[in-house]
Amino acid sequence: VRYGHAYCVAMIGLVPGAKPEPASTQNATVQIFGERAGAISFLVDGAENNDPVTGGPQVRFTQDSIQEFDVMTTGYEAEFGRAQGGVANIITRSGTNEFDGRAFWFLRDDQFDTANVPDQDPPALNRDQWGGTLGGPIVREHAFFFGSFEKLDEQRGVNIQQSRIPAFVRAGLATPGGEEDFQIAPETDGFTGLGKVDFNLNVDHRLTATVNRSQQDVTGEISSPVAGTTALPSAARTETREGTSAVFRHSAVFSQSTFLESTGTWIDGLSGNNLDETIRAEPILTLLLTGFVQSATQLYVLRFL
After folding, report:
1. Residue 236 CB: number of other CB atoms within 10 A?
2. What is the pLDDT of residues 268-302, one digit of tens each?
3. In the predicted model, what is the mean pLDDT of the chain?
4. Average pLDDT over residues 255-268
5. Average of pLDDT values for 211-219?
6. How confident is the model at residue 253 (pLDDT cuts 50, 70, 90)?
7. Dihedral, CA of residue 50, residue 52, residue 56 and residue 61, to nearest 10
8. Which label site among 11, 174, 180, 190 has the fewest CB atoms less than 10 Å from its CB?
């Protein structure tokens, strides 16, 4: 996953006192000094970017839009506050006096996979992740722009060893609808984009405006809600996560020892499972005592600098 916040969360797990918590909620997956994973506060360009429900970042940023980030675990100043488990302070990139652009494309496909399940093809997989950045001057020394975007398209097959599933289950006799479709393919459609402008009003004053949009929709996702079981495709769910944020920041230098930074932010987000469903699909579980999951994928990368 190349999303910048996911990358930062992974890096937080390397900080002394931090412990990965993969079984936690969708977004908050790291604990610091025993605090809840959702107790970490995420700041982007001085503005909060926290999911109030599940913890973790509310709006995702592309990895190439992040210039640097700092993780504070204890002893941080009161200006940060509102965090028990630590603060991840993230700074986004800005344009400079030189034009700079980059592009990337990551590809994964089942044509390069090998099945490790006897008499069964490897699960279908097609994943395209591409994007780029562009930055430069609007007016040299005075105004700059920077933009970054990333697009994700992924289609996956059902990763179940069907030979271990009883015939009556495969025939749909255990499914309320009377049919079990093992051709259901989980699909992911994601987009993340950032636009930023910086203005040097004079030697002592700088104004910055940033707008970011992230969206990820997943359909046909099959979970395993109980250890040792596999949920059948009839219980496939949808996942929706989207958000938009805008940050405005003014930096003023009054003397060599006095400065003031003022930040205003607007953020709107939506996340949840099966948001468009009117009824709840109860998962049909099959106990797989000795089953295993197929694997063996390769990653091919083309990156243009």
Report:
1. 21
2. 988 888 887 666 555 555 554 444 444 333 333 34
3. 80
4. 91
5. 93
6. very high
7. -40
8. 11
Q: How many whole angstroms separate alpha carbon 9 and alpha carbon 90?
A: 11
48-58, pLDDT tens digit by residue? Answer: 888 877 777 88
Placement of tokens 């926290």 in the chain: 50
| Long-range contact pairs involving 75-80 (C-beta distance under 8 Å, separation at least 24) | 80/41, 80/43
Q: What is the DSSP string of the chain?
A: --BHHHHHHHHHTTSTTEEE-TTS-SS--EEETT--GGGEEEEETTEE-B-TTT-SBSS--BGGGEEEEEEE-SS--TTT-S-SSEEEEEEE----SS-EEEEEEEEEEGGG----STTSPPPPEEEEEEEEEEEEEEETTTEEEEEEEEEEEEEE-----GGGS-HHHHTTTTSTTS---TT---EEEEEEEEEEEEEE-SSSEEEEEEEEEEEEEEEEE----STTEEE-GGG-EEEEEEEEEEEEEEEEE-SSS-EEEEEEEEEEEEEEESTT-SS--PPPEEE-SS---------EEEEE-
Say how far residue 177 (Cα) sits from the centre of its chain. 34
